[in-house]
Design goal:
The structure is a single chain. The chain has one domain: NMB0513-like, CATH 1.10.3510. The chain is globular, with a radius of gyration of 14 Å. It contains 6 helices and 5 strands. Strand 3 and strand 4 form a beta hairpin. The strands form 2 sheets. A 3-stranded antiparallel sheet has the order 1-5-2. Strands 3-4 form a two-stranded antiparallel ribbon.
Length: 139
């Protein structure tokens, strides 16, 4: 399993690549490259997101009305929203993806500091570097 630091970097880069906001469950399925359906995958992702929230790099936002910008909530509400969104997750073995029932679109949104960190990572490591590194890479 990857380290928390590596996962945090992947999250920052992926959300920055997605116009600084991304649906949380889709983000989870993108940044963990070898999904096995173990509960530890959810725990690792939740802990990495909590650390990014605590560092002031990421906040959560509920789905907004169509055509309206997402409005992020504060750090305390972000942590609660994160837990609520990840609680109903289950693994679909037929397509090796995590999903939720009920599925409620909740967004991970980069703060200004998070955007700067994400841009820096993309410049240094490239787009979705974890897909392109060989088995002897740093992941």
């Amino acid at each position: 399993m990857i380290s928390s630091d590596e996962l945090q970097q992947r999250i920052l880069a992926e959300v920055e690549e997605c116009a600084a906001e991304e649906v949380l469950v889709a983000l989870f399925n993108t940044v963990i490259d070898e999904m096995l359906g173990h509960p530890e995958e959810v725990t690792l992702f939740r802990e990495a997101m909590e650390q990014l929230i605590d560092k002031g790099l990421v906040l959560m936002a509920p789905q907004n009305e169509p055509g309206q910008h997402t409005v992020e909530v504060d750090a305390g509400q972000s942590r609660a929203m994160l837990v609520e969104t990840l609680r109903p997750l289950f693994f679909r073995a037929d397509d090796l993806r995590w999903t939720a029932d009920p599925f409620v679109p909740t967004y991970a949104v980069l703060t200004e500091a998070g955007r700067l960190a994400g841009k820096k990572l993309l410049g240094e490591r490239g787009y979705r570097w974890w897909y392109y590194e060989d088995n002897e890479g740093i992941t």
